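[Meeting: bench + compute handoff]

Bench side (C.D.) handed over the final construct sequence. Compute side (W.E.) agreed to return the predicted structure before the next meeting so the bench team could plan truncations. Sequence as handed over:
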Amino acid sequence: MTVRTATLIGSGAILLWSLLALFTAASGAVPPFQLAAMTFLVGGLIGCATWVVRPAGLSALRQPPAVWALGLAGLFGYHALYFAALRLAPPAEAGLINYLWPLLIVLFSALLPGEAGLRPAHLAGALLGLSGVVALFLGRGTLSYDAAALPGYLASLAGAFVWSGYSVLSRRVGAVPTDAVAGFCLATAALSLVCHLAFETTVWPAGPGQWGAVLALGLGPVGAAFYLWDIGVKRGDIRLLGIASYAAPVLSTLILVAAGYASATPALALACALIVAGALVATRAGRPQDKPA
């Protein structure tokens, strides 16, 4: 597999994550941890299903404790922090702070062995992407600071560090097969179920449409996306993937507009322009994409 191919595969995760808001909105009033438990179960079973024809894939679950800790911190830890942030802080502010993780991926990846250091074009591209997300969130309403929401802001910031750390450190354990992600998903589902039983009241999806949205979440944004991302960050251009990740909230908004859940605004057009410009700038600094990963 070449670096270019792995990067394209990782980009598939970004496209799937852009469907997260749509499917979540369509899933009804299912509480966050319950929804995570249901969807991560589906996501884990996706990987396990392939072991029927690839029995050797099951051996990927035999990993050192440090690898399991990394996987659970990335999948369960990030989502737990993000859910907490949404409960403790206004969603717009929490979401904007959380979207520091693509920039952090670009910065942290410069510390990886074998990388050529952080180039100005990478940083410029990441900052343009962040500017696009800021424009998008400002277009949704005035951002404000509420001292009482400080715990939520901190949880959102911690989530950004956790996900970026998981993504970059996954490259350090590149020998771990992507099949291990199935185990991480199933363990995350179990931990989410524990949190649901402790903190939430069960609300089941109402009707086939909402059940279908839950299934779609588990198959895509909370399922296949994590397998694709694992391949991308381990074998692809991780900095380019980090910058490209800024496209997720913009694509998500475009999809919501197309589905009738949101309205098109000038801020959306500006966000698109900034993020595309950031990706183009960063691509100019990219390393060769046709060598083996």
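W.E. noted at the follow-up: Residues 254 and 264 are 8 Å apart (CA to CA). C.D. will use this when planning the next construct.
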